[in-house]
Design brief:
EC number: 2.7.7.65
Protein name: GGDEF domain-containing protein
Pfam families: GGDEF (PF00990)
Keywords: DNA-binding, Nucleotidyltransferase, Transferase
Largest sheet: 5 strands, antiparallel
Helix content: 55-70%
Shape: globular
Organism: Actinoplanes oblitus
Structural class: alpha+beta
C-alpha cells in the first residue's frame, strides 16, 4: 500500500495533482491542491497538500509567495509526525532556499531531508518521489555526487513500488553537472556527459519511457553540444518545445534557442537574444549566460571578448566554490564545538542553557558565562541588540516567518563575532553580545559590522514589504563593580540603529 492510499479522502485529486507536477504542469496542479485545502479537514491530508503546493510555487518561480507557503506547510507538518512529509518539505525548502540565494539554509534543509527520508519505513511511490526531489535539490545547489546518490535511491525505492527505473532518469542532474564542468574549464568532460545524455534519449525513445517534463532538458543538452561544435542527429529544436510551465523549462528553451543560433553561424544574433531576455541564475548556474557569450564571441572571431567573458564565467563559478568552502569551515567549527561539549559535560551538559529556536545560548547560559568572567576578575563590553520591525513581521507574515527572521539574525550575529565572543538570545527579539576584554572602540566596530551584515540580507524575499533592521546599545561589566543587570540596563537605554 502506498502512502497516499492510507488517506481517507481526496486521494484521487492528490494523485492527479502529483502527476501534473511530475509532467511539469504545476500551474494546473495548484487549483486542485487549493480545492483540497478548501474542503479537507484531516491534518495529514492538509499537510500533504500544503507541502505539494509549496513545491508547485517553487516550480513556477513565484519567489515572493514562498515564505508564506513554507510557513503554512511547516506548521501543518509539525502537527503530523510523519518522516516522509518532513523529508519532502525539507527537499522543497532546499530548492526554495536556492531560489532565494541562501546556500547555508539550503544545505541545512538538504541534511534534514536526507535524514527524514532515510527514516521512512515504507518503500512506496511517494517516498521515491521524495528522494527524486531531494536529488533535484542537491543538483541545483551544486552537490552533483550527492544528487546522483539520491536519484539512485529514488530508483531503488521506486522499483519496490513497481516503478520503472526510467521514471527517475533525471537528465537535469547530469546536465547541470555537464555545464558545471564547462564553467570550470573542462569542456571535454562537459561534452562526454552531454553525449551520454544524448545516448540515453535514444534508449528512452525506443522504450517510450520519456517524461514530458524532461523534454527541455534533453533539448538543451543537444543544443549545447551543437553550440560547442558537435552536431547531433536528433533535432534539438523539436525537444525544446513543450515540457511544461516551470521556470526551468522556460529558461532552457530560451538558452537552447541561443545555442542553436550559435550553431547556425549567427553569433551576433545569439548575443542579442542573450541580452534581450534575462534568465534565472538558479536553473543552470549564474556562469551559464556568460559562458554562452564567450562561445558567441569566439564564433565571431573576437577572441579578446571571448576570453573576458570566459574569465567572468569562471569567476562566478569560483564564487560558488568559495561559498561551499565557507560552509565546510562552518561545519568543521560546529563539529569541534560539539566535541568540546562532549568533553566538558559539566560546562555544557544542561540542555536548558540553549535556546531551541536559534541554537544560541539562552539567558541562563548568559548569566553563567558572565558570572564566570567576573569571578576571574575580567571585564567585557556588553551589547543589547534587538530587531527593528519584528512586531510588524509577526502581524503581517505570521509567527513562523518571525521565527525565520530570528534564526537569520542569530546567524548574522554569529558571523560577525570574534572567536571567543559570546552571543545569547535573551528574550523575544532581544540578543545579548559579550566581548571579553573589549572596550568602547571595539564595541563600536562590532556594531558597525552587525549593521552592515544585516543590511545585505535579502529580507524582501523572506518577509516581502517589511524592512528589517537592528538596534544596539553597549555598556561594560567588570568596571567599577558593575554587574550584568546594571550593564544590560545601561546598554538597553543607549540603543540606536546599528
Amino acid at each position: 500500500m502506498g502512502w497516499l492510499d492510507q488517506l481517507a479522502e481526496h486521494v484521487d485529486d492528490l494523485r492527479r495533482a502529483g502527476r501534473l507536477q511530475q509532467d511539469g504542469r504545476s500551474a494546473q496542479a495548484l487549483p486542485i491542491l487549493d480545492a483540497v485545502l478548501a474542503a479537507g479537514t484531516d491534518p495529514t491530508i492538509r499537510a500533504y497538500a500544503l507541502v505539494q503546493r509549496f513545491g508547485a510555487l517553487i516550480n513556477l518561480g513565484r519567489v515572493a509567495e514562498l515564505a508564506t507557503a513554507m510557513a503554512a506547510a511547516a506548521e501543518a507538518v509539525r502537527e503530523v509526525p510523519d518522516p516522509y512529509l518532513r523529508g519532502q518539505l525539507h527537499a522543497f525548502a532546499a530548492l526554495g532556499a536556492h531560489l532565494q540565494s541562501n546556500l547555508d539554509r539550503g544545505v541545512t534543509h538538504l541534511v534534514q531531508a536526507s535524514r527524514a527520508l532515510a527514516a521512512v519505513p515504507d518503500r512506496d511511490e511517494e517516498t521515491a518521489w521524495g528522494w527524486h526531489d531531494l536529488a533535484m535539490a542537491y543538483s541545483y545547489l551544486g552537490f552533483h555526487g550527492q544528487a546522483l546518490t539520491a536519484i539512485e535511491q529514488a530508483r531503488e525505492v521506486g522499483a519496490s513500488a513497481g516503478l520503472a527505473p526510467e521514471v527517475f532518469a533525471a537528465p537535469g542532474i547530469r546536465l547541470r553537472n555537464a555545464v558545471s564542468l564547462d564553467h570550470q574549464g573542462d569542456t571535454d568532460g562537459c561534452l562526454r556527459v552531454l553525449r551520454d545524455i544524448d545516448a540515453e534519449l535514444s534508449r528512452y525513445l525506443a522504450t517510450d519511457q520519456l517524461r514530458p517534463g524532461s523534454r527541455a532538458v534533453y533539448g538543451y543538452a543537444l543544443a549545447r553540444r551543437a553550440a560547442l561544435g558537435e552536431p547531433t542527429e536528433a533535432g534539438a529544436a523539436t525537444w525544446l518545445t513543450g515540457g511544461g510551465d516551470s521556470v526551468r523549462t522556460r529558461d532552457l528553451q530560451h538558452l537552447g534557442a541561443v545555442c542553436l543560433t550559435i550553431a547556425a553561424g549567427k553569433p551576433e544574433r545569439a548575443l542579442t537574444m542573450l541580452e534581450a531576455i534575462p534568465v534565472s541564475a538558479e536553473v543552470l548556474g549564474a556562469p551559464e549566460p556568460a559562458r554562452l557569450r564567450s562561445i558567441c564571441h569566439a564564433s565571431a572571431g573576437d577572441h579578446a571578448a571571448a576570453h573576458a567573458a570566459d574569465r567572468y564565467a569562471f569567476r562566478l563559478a569560483a564564487q560558488r566554490i568559495d561559498q561551499l568552502r565557507d560552509g565546510y569551515l562552518d561545519g568543521v567549527a560546529a563539529r569541534l564545538d560539539a566535541q568540546e561539549t562532549q568533553r566538558d559535560p559539566h560546562r555544557y551538559g544542561d540542555e536548558t542553557l540553549t535556546d531551541p529556536l536559534t541554537g544560541l545560548p539562552n539567558r541562563r547560559a548568559l548569566e553563567h558565562y558572565v558570572d564566570g568572567l567576573l569571578a576571574r576578575g575580567e571585564r567585557a563590553a556588553v551589547g543589547v541588540c534587538d530587531i527593528v520591525g519584528f512586531t510588524t513581521v509577526n502581524l503581517r507574515h505570521g509567527r513562523h516567518c518571525g521565527d525565520l527572521v530570528l534564526q537569520r539574525i542569530a546567524g548574522v550575529l554569529a558571523r560577525v563575532m570574534r572567536r571567543g565572543d559570546f552571543v545569547a538570545r535573551f528574550a523575544g527579539d532581544e540578543f545579548v553580545l559579550v566581548l571579553p576584554g573589549a572596550g568602547p572602540h571595539h564595541a563600536a566596530e562590532v556594531a558597525r559590522r552587525i549593521g552592515a551584515a544585516a543590511a545585505v540580507e535579502n529580507w524582501q524575499v523572506l518577509v516581502p514589504g517589511t524592512p528589517i533592521g537592528l538596534a544596539a546599545g553597549w555598556s561594560e561589566v567588570g568596571v567599577n563593580g558593575r554587574g550584568l543587570s546594571a550593564a544590560l540596563a545601561a546598554a538597553a537605554a543607549s540603543r540606536k540603529p546599528a
